[in-house]
Design goal:
By secondary structure, this protein is mainly α. The chain has 24 helices and two strands. A two-stranded antiparallel sheet has the order 1-2. Helix 7 (114-146) packs across helix 8, helix 10 packs across helix 13 and helix 17 crosses helix 18.
Length: 572
């Protein structure tokens, strides 16, 4: 069978599975639609959380970014994994104990303010829409290459599939679909990694193959010979300060992602939330410890396969011709010497490789079996659709639950609340589809923007809302407005050409004027501003009411500690 035939087979089987799960998990009550009835087992929620969190950026683009940036690409590994640990250990148990449906719900209740709730909804929409743009681009890329479908049509197919199980099952349907999607994406990521490790290092375990063989020294030598810096040289592409700020933005942004936080509301209790956090971390670690090895092997393999070849030789490679047709791989013999050369300068380089194709093209470059190539395509779709589904529900719940039910029609019955939620999922699907066709940047970069927005808006108010009894509504509102506004302004100003290229904007409005920090790292500065403003304003305005203080005291009390024990401790 051909690659296309295998791809159609795997995509059809997996999509039918997702549709079947969505149909079986359909719900009628609002608790099932928004938090899966809070009855998801810990291990299943761990797998769903891992799939929700490991988006197209993790599956498709992260290893590609590491492959191109080398050492500097480790910002994605350190930031995203560190952020999940921060969320799981520091925030998740408290948020689950607080017992709300959404992050804006937490903000509105903790800060006793509808204004704070509305601002939190705006922040959630900013983060989710930016994030979902990356997922839909990933869907379009996979369909474009492996099924010979235009990116626009591929995005539409993805919209229909994810919309179906999200509209019918809400969070319940999304959760059980994500469990299946995690299985698909992790198998699809591991099989080519193991095969490539065995081929290049003789070791079937990618992590060991990378560190125990001579693949890294060989790659360093090749890089230097071609004019690149060594693959392992630190800060070759980004300054030390920018690397630090991007890592922090990704880390605290992870801890503030609304579609990940809401997963901890779907389990029965706080104990289950802690266990599901452990399972999710284990499931995530499997992919994240494999990604650097796959990135290294893919970089070495691509250079060996393409550099120094003639155009005639390139066009005998079926995979190269197909990727060239997508526009994501370009060949141009600029100096006319008959051989294609890969150089650090994109102007002079005769081989241009889009970061987003490195993982997807690796099985073909390594001449693996067609079914492996097709499996990777199915895995990329699973990663993109799983996260897109979670984001669509955040967009839906932000409007249907936090605005419509909480503010407009508090007396709405279950049927109307679910109906409004489903309608908003459909609307969100169309928004996601538009950004999938007109994406601002490559997948990992777009997702990095979303993390920066989450870092500058949600993380400070959540952390202060749990651990600072003096934090009040005035401080939270001012902090979110300042942090988000600054971050959005900076990202838009430095990436105007990417964000508005379709509207005739060809250049950025200004450069990285804030200490040379890039748009991907500016969320750290926005977070600092949020913290500073929230703390100062909270101290200059009246403290929260006593009922909020009582909620916080109960929130931070260990579950096993009762009133008698507290009395004994105070007596001592």
């Amino acid at each position: 069978m051909t690659v296309e035939a295998w791809t159609y087979l795997f995509v059809t089987i997996t999509f039918m599975l997702y549709l079947y799960i969505g149909w079986k998990a359909r719900v009628k009550e609002s608790s099932g639609f928004y938090v899966a009835g809070q009855g998801v087992p810990a291990i299943a929620n761990g797998a769903a959380t891992a799939a929700d969190w490991m988006s197209a950026a993790s599956f498709i683009s992260m290893a590609g970014a590491i492959s191109v940036l080398g050492y500097d690409g480790s910002i994605y590994l350190m930031g995203w994994t560190g952020g999940y640990v921060l969320l799981a250990l520091l925030l998740a148990p408290y948020l689950r104990k607080f017992g709300q449906y959404t992050v804006p719900d937490f903000v509105g209740t903790r800060y006793y303010s509808d204004t704070a709730r509305i601002i939190a909804v705006i922040c959630a929409l900013f983060v989710s829409i930016t994030y979902v743009a990356g997922q839909m681009r990933g869907v379009g890329i996979v369909f474009s290459k492996f099924l010979n479908v235009e990116i626009t049509h591929g995005v539409i197919i993805g919209m229909v599939i994810v919309g179906f199980f999200a509209v019918l099952g809400g969070m319940k349907g999304i959760t059980w679909t994500q469990v299946a999607q995690y299985g698909v994406l992790i198998v699809a990521f591991l099989i080519p990694s193991i095969a490539l490790s065995l081929k290049l290092t003789g070791n079937p375990i990618p992590q060991l193959g990378m560190v125990t063989s001579d693949i890294i020294p060989r790659l360093n030598e090749i890089q230097v010979a071609l004019g690149f810096t060594e693959y392992t040289q630190p800060f070759a592409h980004k300054s030390m300060l920018d690397v630090l700020f991007i890592t922090i933005a990704l880390m605290v942004g992870t801890a503030g992602l609304p579609h990940v936080i809401v997963r901890f509301y779907t389990v029965p209790n706080v104990r289950a939330a802690r266990y599901s956090a452990f399972w999710a971390l284990l499931f995530i670690a499997i992919l994240y410890t494999t990604a650097p090895a796959l990135a290294t092997f893919a970089r070495y393999n691509l250079i060996e396969s393409l550099h120094g070849k003639t155009l005639d030789e390139i066009h005998t490679m079926d995979w190269a011709a197909k990727w060239e047709a997508t526009g994501l791989l370009e060949f141009n013999d600029k100096n006319g010497n008959g051989k294609l050369e890969l150089t650090p300068d994109t102007i002079t380089s005769e081989i241009i490789i889009d970061k987003d194709i490195i993982v997807l093209s690796t099985p073909e470059v390594a001449q693996m079996s067609p079914w492996v190539v097709a499996l990777v395509a199915a895995g990329g779709l699973a990663a993109a659709l799983s996260t897109a589904a979670g984001l669509l529900l955040v967009i839906s719940s932000s409007i249907a639950h936090d605005i419509y039910f909480r503010l407009i029609n508090p007396n709405a019955d279950e049927k109307r609340r679910v109906m409004v939620g489903r309608f908003m999922v459909i609307a969100a699907v169309f928004v996601a589809g538009y950004f999938g066709v007109h994406p601002p940047g490559f997948v990992a970069q777009v997702v990095a923007f979303a993390f920066g927005l989450a870092a500058s808006s949600f993380f400070p108010v959540i952390l202060l809302g749990i651990f600072d009894r003096r934090a009040n509504r005035e401080g939270a509102i001012a902090g979110m407005i300042v942090g988000l506004s600054f971050t959005v302004f900076y990202i838009v100003g430095t990436k105007a050409n990417l964000l508005f290229g379709g509207f005739g904007v060809e250049e950025a409005w200004f450069g990285n004027w804030c200490f040379g920090i890039s748009a991907e790292g500016i969320g750290t500065v926005g977070m600092m501003l949020n913290f500073a403003v929230a703390l100062i304003v909270s101290r200059m305005t009246p403290p929260p009411p006593q009922e909020v203080m009582d909620i916080l005291d109960d929130l931070r009390m260990p579950d096993h500690v009762g009133p008698a024990l507290i009395l004994d401790e105070s007596t001592e």
